[in-house]
Structure formats: structure tokens, C-alpha cells
């Protein structure tokens, strides 16, 4: 899978390099600060693509003694680096736009510039949609982050084309720096969002969508012996996940029987996360008398209380470090 990721990001890098050159050509032709802003953002596409290549290469390396969970965390560094570069580009764009408000430059050959930007926008649209689709399919944060950045470039380029059309037909050259300011603000927002995602991943912030998916899988295949699951924690390492939790089982089960139940859970969840690997660390807890009223075990030889009803598994009782009912 990593080889495919690397090929995809190399395609993105090559295309971004060509499109960046095209945008700078449009700037040289027109002297438009808005086009320059678009070109500056495209430089970040190239830099981020190069860093993403290294990120995917490092992610593909196997676990070792110094990295027992693998190297997947580098993906969060990758999107954080990309977000920081985008944020810096946004600041530079705003600075350059401010200069043009006070020192205006005559615009020329806007029609040729528009055609060049329109061509790069179409190419970026196809590339961005491709990256977002593949990033989702491969569960790759690096490819998804790169795709989101490319799509932001597309949206800003569409706005740029609209501004160039207005300037071409009206002669209102003040729209040039104004459009650049708007693009700079949008770029700053995208950079912040990517940095926020990076920080969340590096700080092991829980992705509740993943938690909900794991709970749904286990609830759908719930066995009578699985009395409750609690203290669940999910960490993401690239496209792989590390999940640990406590599983309450009947205390009289033999070790081999308990092991079979743990392997069943691992198999179910790994099937659900087919695009990545899920590593489970499960701590088994013995049942206690207070578990009897929600335990589904029929003909239990040690039952002390009648079964009163099943407790539905949800975030509120799966994430805390306590048995249900305590």
C-alpha cells in the first residue's frame, strides 16, 4: 500500500511543479498580485509534496526497537509542516497585497493570464479530487491533507478567475489587491486547520468517529461472554490504529477460552478497518456479582442476580475506566 501512496504523491508533486511554473508565467505576463498570490500558494504544493514523499517513505518502514508502534506518526508532522507552510504563504500574500494597495502596478495581458489560470485550475481540480478519493480509500492522512490543500487552491483560483474577468471588462484594478487579500485569508484558514489536525494527532486526541465505528462493530457481533467493554483508548499511527480496552469475561473461563474471545474481537475490528492494521491490547477483567443483572450468560453456574436487561454500549460507558453499573 505504501508503494501506491508514494506513486500517488509523486504524481501530485510533478503536477504541482508544472502548474506552479505556469502560474508564475501568468504573473510575469500580467503583473497581477492576485495571480502572484496563487503562484506563491502553489510553491507550497511543491514543498509539501516533497515532504510528503519522505513522510510516506518513513511510514512504510517496519516497526523496530526504537519505534515499537511503527513510524506512522510522521504523517501528522507532514500535514503540520504543510499547514505551517500554507500559513506562512497566507501571511506573505497579505503583505504583498498591502503593498499593491499603496504602490499600484499597471495590469497587462489579463486575457492571456486568465486562460493560463483556467488551465491550471482544471488540472488542480482533477488532481485534488483524485488525491481526496485515494486518501480516503487508503486511510492516508498525508494524501488526504495534500488533496484538501489542492482543493483549496482550486477554490481560490476560481475566485481569482472571477476577479480577472471583472477587471478585464471593467478596468477596476483595485479588485486585484482586494482579491489577493481574500485569497490570503482563505489560505490562512486552511493552514490553521491542517496544523490543528497535526497537533490533535501528535497529542493523541481521540477521534470519536473511530471510537463509534469500533463500538458499532463490537455491538453488532456481541457475544454473551462479552459482559462489558470499558476504558477504551484509540491512537492512530498513519493508516494503522492502536486500541486498548478492558473486557469483562466470566471469571471461571479457562485461559485458552479467554484467549479465543480476544482473538475474535481482534479479527472483527481488523475486518472493519480493511485499509489499515488494528493492533489490540485487551486487558481481561473477571466478572463480579454486580455484573449479573446485565450479563447475558444463560445457565450461568455462579449467577447471583437475575438478568434485568442489556446495557447498550456507547461512548458514555465504553470510554470510562469502570465496569458498567459501577
From TrEMBL:
What topology in the membrane does the UniProt record assign?
Multi-pass membrane protein
Q: Name one Pfam family in it.
A: Cation_efflux
- Bilayer-crossing regions: 7-30, 42-59, 79-102, 114-131, 152-172
User: Any keyword Protein biosynthesis?
Assistant: no
Query: Cation efflux protein cytoplasmic domain spans which residues?
Result: 211-287
Where does the record place the Cation efflux protein transmembrane domain? 9-203
Q: Name one GO biological process term.
A: intracellular zinc ion homeostasis
Location in the cell reads: Membrane
Family annotation (InterPro entries): Cation_efflux, Cation_efflux_CTD, Cation_efflux_CTD_sf, Cation_efflux_TM, Cation_efflux_TMD_sf, CDF_Transporter
- Report the principal subcellular site: membrane
Q: Which GO terms describe its molecular function?
A: cadmium ion transmembrane transporter activity; ferrous iron transmembrane transporter activity; zinc efflux antiporter activity
This chain's protein is named Cation transporter
Q: Which organism is it from?
A: Chitinophaga agri
